[in-house]
Design goal:
Radius of gyration: 17 Å
Structural class: mainly alpha
Largest sheet: none
Number of domains: 1
Length: about 100
């Protein structure tokens, strides 16, 4: 559960940073792919470091699965919230034009 929670928060923060840096709510599949790849590399690296360098820690591949589940929950949340915010912003922009 801890892995899932940490990677969920990490994913949400990565999306938040991306939205703030681009200052628009444009939906980008490449952003989602990059965040999934980045978090997978981090999760895999943590498990490999535990396997190779620590005798008192064990590499649990279920931890990596839990990490990725947290990432996918974050991506799903982003898509749901992004769609809502994007549609609200489009509605406000249409009302300003009228």
């Amino acid at each position: 559960m801890v892995h899932l929670g940490f990677f969920f928060v990490l994913t949400i923060l990565l999306f938040y940073g991306k939205i703030k840096s681009q200052s628009t709510y444009d939906f980008s599949i490449s952003t989602i792919f990059k965040i999934i790849l980045f978090t997978f590399i981090i999760g895999s690296s943590i498990e490999l470091i535990q396997l190779k360098f620590f005798d008192y820690r064990s590499a649990e591949w279920w931890d990596l699965g839990s990490d990725m589940l947290g990432v996918f929950m974050g991506v799903f949340s982003y898509i749901l919230l992004h769609r809502k915010n994007y549609n609200e912003k489009k509605k406000i922009d249409r009302e300003k034009k009228v």
